[in-house]
Amino acid sequence: MIGLRKRTLVALLAAGGGAVVAASPALTQNAPPPPVRYTVDAGTLSGMAAMGSAASGSGGGGLGAAMVMMGGGGRGPAHELTLRIGSSRPADGPPKADHFMPQAAGLGLSVPLNTPGPVGREEPAEELPNQMQTPSGRLLLYWGCGERAGPGQPVVIDFSKLARGQMPQGLFAPSLNLPDDWSIRQGNSTTYGWWNNGHDGKSLPSNASLLGQHRIAGNYAPEIKFDLKQDFMGALQTTSRDLPSGAVALSWNALAEATGYYAWVMAMPDGGGDQPRDVVWWTSSATQQFGGPMADWIAPAGVRRLIEARTVMAPTQTECTIPAEVKNGGEMMMANLYAYGPEVNFAYPPRPDNARTPWNPEWIARVRYRSHTMFMPGMEAMMGGFGGEDQAEGGQAAQPQPEQPRKPRCRGLGGIAARAAGLCE
User: Fold this and answer.
1) How far apart (Å, rounded) are the C-alpha atoms in residues 233 and 249?
2) Contacts of 175 (CB under 8 A, 6+ apart)
3) Disulfide check for 266: which of 194, 232, 300, 417 has CB 3.0–4.6 Å away?
């Protein structure tokens, strides 16, 4: 029954964590979609997110964003990297494409962009709840920075109702189609290839750099070349302290590259057993918004819109108070903080300055950045080096440390957040 409740919760998170799908920017230039699109998603991980736990290479939203294949894994920050290519052309023979990296990336001459088989999946799907059983327990939703929860909180979701398909209205972010974003998936490409950090045994070293010349070559796309002058973002470091009200004051270091910040917390009672238990979910959004693209990669223009909607915190904000009701929701809190970063775009031929000029690019490419940290409020000091203080001068992290020992088994409903953080299995 506990596992069933976990899958129900994961299904709820996944429902609001789909990929951001929208028209290609090329459509705004009076041009058809480009035949070839390429994306590089480059992330910096700190805190528990840098401990080396692994799941799918999705880089997508919900719990999947908290469980990514990563390099580093030592006491300093780590990096995540996901590459995707989508082409409207069939391959000339078996699909083959490679991304040739700068030497400083530490990945060798190139990494292969693998094309999944026709019956495979790019990303593993979570098992849906067994409809023959009815899960129990509740999810309590809170939002907004402040010592006390605002009016109308919490919104209560009964897992048994959720299992029957009764999804609350207005739960997730109002627009998954942010105008500056587009996606590359196997389903919207004639030929598709991808690489995720650690997918083929290659992992980014903690001092990896993306600066320099990049080249993508294959048999279903023209050669793509660009010179990248923006490196990985810095690492987030958090500090928290308990307030007399029972709330938790959270603060973090300002990142020069950040376009906005977003935090979310899961809190739950510890312990096992099959008795129904409440799970608390809180976000820093000033409005009732959960899931959606918030744990994804969001373009700066999209972040600006979300700041205006009071869903994302401004880049000048470096503190937020978690309400007392959230901490009272359980003995254990697991927190995530995202710093959305810049986006760099390339195209051939380049986009004309005059928007009225017809434009038919052979390819477009973008590089997106973010920084993500996961932590247990009040335990940053105990987690020590995973917060990023071992980061070397110049923004690069220390060399990887030996592999972590095998994790304990997750037990009870409290294992939901612990499993997401990679603390147990």
Assistant:
1) 25
2) none
3) 417
Domain-located, residue 286? no
- Is 163 part of a structural domain of the chain? no
Polymer length in residues for the chain? 425
- On the CB side of 172, CA atoms within 13 Å amount to 18
Do the Cβ atoms of 312 and 306 come closer than 8 Å? Answer: yes
Classify residue 146 by burial, with Cβ atoms within 10 Å: 0-12, 13-18, 19+: middle
Q: 3-class SS at 340?
A: strand
DSSP designation for 422:
T
H or E element at residue 15: helix 2-15
- Rounded CA-CA distance 266/212 in Å is 39
φ/ψ of 162, rounded to 5, equals -60, -40
Tell me which range, 158-167, 223-232, 281-290, 354-363, is most confidently predicted by mean pLDDT: 223-232
Distance CA 347, CA 40 (A): 14
Highest-confidence segment of 20-34, 91-105, 398-412: 91-105
* CA dist., res. 155 & res. 140, Å (int): 6
Ramachandran angles phi, psi of 50, nearest 5°? -100, 10
Question: 101 pLDDT exceeds 70?
Answer: yes
pLDDT value for 272: 54
Q: Structural domain of residue 302, as residue ranges?
A: 2-134+172-238+250-263+291-318+334-420
Dist. CA 357–CA 248, nearest whole Å: 54
Question: Looking at the DSSP assignment, which residues form a beta bridge with residue 114?
Answer: 194
CB neighbour class for 18 (10 Å; exposed up to 12, middle 13-18, buried from 19) = middle
Q: Could you tell me if residue 276 is inside a domain? A: no
Average pLDDT over residues 300-308: 92
CB atoms within 10 A of CB 54: 15
Total tally of structural domains belonging to the chain: 1
Q: Is the predicted pLDDT of residue 377 greater than 70, yes or no?
A: yes
In a domain, 141, yes or no: no
